[in-house]
Design brief:
heterodimer, A: alpha/beta, D-Maltodextrin-Binding Protein, domain 2, 5-stranded mixed sheet, 20 helices, 14 strands, globular, B: mainly alpha, MetI-like fold, two-stranded antiparallel ribbon, 2 strands
């Protein structure tokens, strides 16, 4: 009996031992070694582009037909076949697909401004500077602020593709009814106009702030920058609790408390389109949807100026990244493909169909302006584009922390400065636990 | 028929020695036969059960054990490297404020969902057990939300709860009541998803309760009626005690379902989990939300596994003994 018990114990131990060995072999490498950077060591003059590459995309802005058209052009010009994988319905799904194994299959992938950095940390993205040069793609033609979004440690890790910025929308009919002349140019004017609209009982609210699921840290970046604040100053995380940032958020909170503004329940786009509110800030990519849904004249304007700065515009949307796991031949073909998809002509065509702003400076958008004059505002506003703060786009979980805090602070009477100090402490902990080891 | 027996004391002849097996040989033969039968049984067993066992090992036990291994790593989703951290992820989940908040939310959601579904399900079952016109249609209507897609249900209820344009806001406005900030306040968020979950699942409870009610012997109820027991007395003295097997079955299954099956409603109605991060939702948010903490998420999944394991074991070992069966 004793022998059989011992035998069972030994068998059990052996099975667990085998299981541990198998799991160790199949799971992540726990030796601490990082992925090799192929690009830096490659002599691109010796590399011939591959005949076939794979492009993983969520077809941003419903662009499947346009992407297929551009891909056909590329194949005709170069002879390189492009296999398209629909890797998700949105940027988050595409990112998850890439992180959970898609990187082994894709050569080019669409990743958003807020999701590319973890993939950089995972060593899954190839730096594109040398690749673009080898593929004869002139990167100086890109809108600088849009291209600089992908700059980290002296290398770019993506090329601007389906890009957007926030845009100021207002209800022209409401404004005329209230006797307001043109869009507000400063946040003080936004408050003044919104109060007038509410006092005149023209709409329930003058202005709609975004809820937590509509990226409020992106939509409110202009207000915070306008007061001289920010979510961080590079990796100086104390900026989020600075006096300037607190003043900006207090201004927004007072708007809700005074009744001229509110936080939308599910989407500020819906509240604006249905006439519940008269003004909001939303992505340029929402312009088409708003024009379609609204039964009133929609006006667009630059984001408002603050007391400390002109209306700076945070960049957003997605870029094209090249997988580090691909062979040099595939990477070179991928760089040629990326260059084609982001050329001036391609971007004009893509932008016209989707509402994303063109990422190439030379894109001719004149035909779009004739049909949608509001879109011209979005493109001209690119001159005011500013790269987003590190905390929002690079620090894992920080955007969510900001989103929930902003929603709580704006929709309740919470003490702004206390909340922002708590956010700073949370940021510092996130930095220590999630990034410090890898960045220092 | 006659038989010739050898004298007991006479020695067997050589041929008899060869033809008559010894006890040892018989035992060996029996052993061989048993082995052959056993081998045959094993072959049959492996033939029929083998493929299923392989599938169960590959798709249930391998991921389960893999997940336990990942739970001991500090691993960002998608990273080719990870650091072994022992039990740190578990300690963090049981001691950090965010981990304790998950337990609080899970407890409130489970209590609200289970009690709401069972109480309302029982009341509906009592009504549907009466001989009323349109009873079959009513039973179908009550059960149908249970088989609807959780995503579709959540989307429809989002329109109903919308504080600006929703049906509920208009109904409340008719009574002079402002709509709560369903989507903006974490506490109201939780109340909202409990209401939707209960609405979707009470049909299941009602149908199971109805089956329980119909198995109660009518002669007992008739005897009680003759003894002048009122409806309330009959319910608490006869119906409810005889329903205890159903009650405990539903209690256990509802606790398990509410901890594992609510994900679709939570994800659609509260995408970032503001105030609604129950344990199953937290697993998703930590790994696939903004944090990408695959190791920590795996640890929470292991905790959920053992929580459900314990609940099931308690149900099997303890609760069933305390339940009244006919």
């Amino acid at each position: 009996m004793r022998n059989s018990t011992l035998s069972a114990t030994w068998k059990g131990t052996a099975v667990f031992g085998m299981a541990a060995l198998v799991l160790t072999a199949c799971g992540p490498d726990t030796s601490g070694e990082s992925a090799e950077d192929q690009v830096a060591d490659t002599d691109w003059s010796d590399v011939e582009p591959a005949d076939e590459i794979t492009f993983a995309t969520n077809h941003p802005g419903g662009s499947e037909d346009q992407e297929n058209e551009l891909i056909e052009q590329f194949t005709e010009e170069t002879g390189i076949e492009v296999n398209v994988i629909t890797s998700g319905a949105d940027y988050e799904e595409t990112n998850r697909w890439f992180q959970t194994g898609g990187g082994d299959n894709a050569d080019v992938i669409v990743l958003s401004d807020a999701t590319w950095f973890p993939n950089y940390l995972n060593g899954a993205l190839a730096p594109v500077d040398d690749l673009l040069e080898a593929a004869d793609v002139d990167s100086s033609g890109y809108v600088e602020a849009l291209y600089e979004d992908y700059l980290y440690e002296d290398h770019h890790y993506g090329v601007p593709y389906a890009r957007s910025t926030p845009l100021f929308y207002y209800n022209v009919d409401h404004f005329e009814e209230a006797g307001l002349d043109g869009a507000p140019e400063t946040w003080e004017e936004v408050a003044e106009y919104a109060q007038t609209i509410v006092d005149e009982d023209i709409a329930s609210y003058g202005y709609s702030f975004p809820p937590s699921n509509e990226y409020p840290a992106w939509g409110l970046a202009n207000l915070v920058w306008g007061y001289g604040g920010g979510w961080s100053d590079e990796w100086d995380l104390s900026m989020v609790s600075s006096d300037a940032t607190a003043e900006a958020i207090e201004f927004a909170q007072s708007g809700v408390q005074d009744g001229w503004a509110h936080v939308s329940a599910s989407s500020q786009t819906d509240d604006f389109s249905s006439g519940v509110s008269s003004m909001t800030i939303q992505s340029t990519g929402s312009l088409g949807g708003i024009l379609e849904a609204a039964d009133f004249e929609v006006g667009t304007a630059f984001l408002p100026d603050g007391p400390a700065a002109e209306g700076e515009t945070p960049t957003g949307g997605a870029g094209l990244m090249i997988a580090s796991a691909s062979d040099p031949e595939e990477q070179l073909a991928a760089a040629m493909f990326v260059g084609h998809m982001t050329s001036a002509e391609s971007q004009a065509y893509f932008s016209e169909a989707t509402g994303y702003v063109p990422s190439h400076q030379d894109a001719d958008m004149s035909s779009v302006y004739e049909e949608q004059p509001q879109f011209e505002t979005a493109v001209e506003q690119l001159d005011r584009a500013r790269v987003q703060d590190h905390a929002r786009v690079f620090l894992p979980g920080a955007d969510l922390e900001l989103a929930e805090t902003l929603q709580d602070v704006l929709s309740a009477d919470a003490d702004v400065r206390e909340e922002l100090e708590r956010v700073q402490a949370e940021f510092e902990e996130l930095y220590e636990t999630e990034l410090a080891d890898e960045l220092e | 028929m006659t038989t010739v027996e050898s004298p007991p004391d006479s020695a067997p002849s050589e041929s008899a020695q060869r033809s008559t097996p010894t006890e040892a040989e018989l035992a060996a033969a029996r052993k061989r036969a048993r082995r052959r039968a056993s081998s045959k049984n094993w072959a049959l067993f492996l033939l029929f059960a083998g493929p299923n066992i392989l599938l169960i090992l590959a798709f249930i036990y391998y991921p389960l054990i893999s997940n336990m291994y990942y739970s001991t790593l500090d691993w960002r989703l998608g990273s080719p490297t990870a650091d072994p951290v022992g039990m740190s992820n578990y300690i963090r989940f049981f001691t950090s404020p965010s981990g304790l908040e998950v337990w609080r939310v899970t407890a409130i959601f489970t209590a609200g969902a289970v009690i709401g579904s069972m109480v309302l399900g029982l009341l509906i079952a009592l009504v549907l057990n009466k001989k009323i016109p349109g009873r079959t249609a009513a039973r179908t209507a009550v059960f149908s939300p249970y088989v609807l897609s959780g995503v579709g249900v959540a989307l429809v209820w989002m329109f109903i709860f919308d504080p600006q344009r929703g049906a509920l806001a208009h109904i409340l406005a008719a009574f002079g009541i402002d709509s709560p900030a369903w989507f903006l306040d974490g506490d109201w968020n939780l109340v909202m998803v409990i209401i939707v979950y209960v609405w979707k699942n009470l049909g299941y409870c009602a149908v199971v309760f109805l089956a329980g009610l119909q198995s109660i012997p009518k002669d007992l109820l008739e005897a009680a009626t003759i003894d002048r027991a009122g409806a309330v007395r009959r319910f608490f003295s006869i119906v409810l005690p005889l329903l205890t097997p159903t009650v405990f079955f539903l209690l256990v299954t509802n606790i398990i379902f509410s901890m594992t099956n609510a994900f679709d409603i939570l994800r659609v109605m509260t995408p970032s989990g503001n105030g609604t991060n129950t344990i199953i939702f937290e697993i998703y948010l930590q790994a696939f939300g903004q944090y990408n903490r695959a190791g920590y998420s795996a640890a929470i999944a292991v905790v959920l596994f053992f929580t459900l394991f314990i609940i099931t074991a308690v149900q099997l070992r303890f609760v069933e003994r305390k339940v009244h069966y006919q």
